[in-house]
Specification:
It is built from 19 helices and 8 strands.
């Protein structure tokens, strides 16, 4: 295996490292790749600190990806990984095959004849080459001819400067990637300029529609959610509400009978599902499936909701908290505003959720809220706040990896 050539001066096990990921979107908001982000355990409480440089840090992250499994992190997408100068100069240190990764050249790497020769060799081998945090410098001209992707930090430039960079870079063959996009307006601005790829937290900041009323399909889903989470409804009411929505009932039975549940016998009706799984668990699953019908929203938002739900649940289980169903619900509903494009407080008003869940969603209060805070901090690699009860770094990392794997499997089932 290529990874056998990797040297390491650091003991590498999952509990040494946090691994996060940030999606890179195309113009249609489909995921093109995931940038893999990391912080060694010693740096978790000092996010601004310089990590162990060159070989040690890069070896740590690469070995961690090898141990966790790159496919578990990015599924069938590309992985974007920052490489230090020493790894760029020695191709044998790179344990990934061409066509699976984007090799990002950091902005502070010195452009030398040796580096240019090495990057040219990597490009000819078939690796996708990206220039990270690009700012115009004449010395970078040789790399611009080799780059497949040029990443521009739009927060580091004014709008006029972004336009100037785009105009200057048109002479090269590279695709442009706008990073650190924070709002839908910034996404639109960069899209109109001709950027092909986009990265940032803009999908976590919903564009609120001014209309007071929800479109019909969203209203139907909200009505279904109200029944599913009404503590006064009977099991028969629950089953009837799900059966009324043919798509949700079909998907629910299909999923319950999939390998994800591994039940000993086939479930043939929603009523039977209520008996086997319990009404709280079934309500959570039906809610998630109802939300999956919002076809005008990017799949990555549904993936985010599912990953949050499962990771909250797994954190609760790891901490010995039972039952963990409410944690799943909190994680899932935390993305309700992203899916519905409405303020979360307004969306929660008609839902019969208990005060504990509502408080967790709106104010991150209580154990439910603490779990949600941990999950959302991990999502944006805010390592200072990645903590829940007394769980170790390894516990939280495993919960994240398992939730990502699980959400990918469920989306494939849908």
């Amino acid at each position: 295996m290529p990874g056998n050539n990797v040297e390491s001066s650091t003991a590498v096990t999952p509990h040494n490292v946090y691994v996060g990921r940030q999606p890179i979107f195309d113009r249609k908001l489909n995921v093109y790749a995931y940038e893999l982000l990391y912080r060694t355990q010693g740096n978790v409480n000092n996010a601004g600190a310089k990590l162990d440089g060159d070989k040690a840090t890069t070896t740590t992250i690469i070995n961690t990806f090898m141990e966790i499994g790159l496919d578990r992190l990015v599924l069938n997408k590309l992985a974007a990984i920052n490489l230090t100068e020493k790894f760029l100069l020695d191709e044998s240190r790179i344990p990934f095959q061409p066509g699976t990764v984007i090799l990002e050249i950091l902005e502070d790497v010195e452009v030398t004849p040796q580096l240019i020769e090495a990057v040219s060799r990597l490009s000819n081998t078939g690796y996708t080459i990206a220039l990270d945090d690009y700012l115009y410098r004449p010395s970078h001209a040789p790399l611009l001819h080799l780059a497949d992707i040029i990443k521009i930090d739009i927060q580091a430039l004014s709008c006029d400067e972004v336009q100037e960079h785009v105009e200057h870079l048109k002479q090269y063959q590279a695709s442009l990637l706008a990073e650190k996009i924070e709002t839908p307006r910034e996404f639109l601005f960069c899209s109109n300029l001709g950027f092909e790829y986009f990265q940032g937290y803009f999908l976590s900041r919903p564009q609120i529609i001014s209309s007071e009323s929800l479109p019909t399909n969203r209203l139907t889903i909200m009505n279904l959610l109200a029944v599913l989470h009404d503590p006064d409804s009977e099991n028969e009411d629950l089953a009837e509400a799900i059966n009324t929505d043919v798509t949700t009932s079909y998907k629910l039975l299909k999923m319950i009978n999939s390998a994800a549940f591994n039940l000993p016998r086939k479930v043939e009706s929603v009523q039977q599902g209520v008996m086997l799984l319990g009404r709280r668990k079934l309500s959570s699953w039906a809610s998630m499936l109802a939300l999956s019908q919002l076809e005008d929203r990017p799949t990555e938002i549904l993936r985010t909701a599912m990953t949050r739900a499962k990771m909250c649940e797994l954190l609760a289980e790891a901490a010995g908290i039972k039952p963990a169903d409410s944690f799943f619900t909190v994680g899932m509903f935390s993305a309700l505003d992203l899916l519905m494009q409405r303020p979360l407080p307004k969306l929660l008003e008609p839902l019969p959720l208990n005060d504990e869940i509502t408080s967790a969603l709106l104010y991150h209060k209580g154990l439910l809220g603490e779990a949600l805070s941990c999950v959302m901090a991990y999502e944006v690699t805010d390592w200072d706040n990645v903590q829940f009860m007394r769980l170790s770094t390894e516990d939280i990392l495993i919960a994240n990896i398992e939730s990502v794997t699980w959400s990918n499997m469920i989306i494939d089932t849908l």
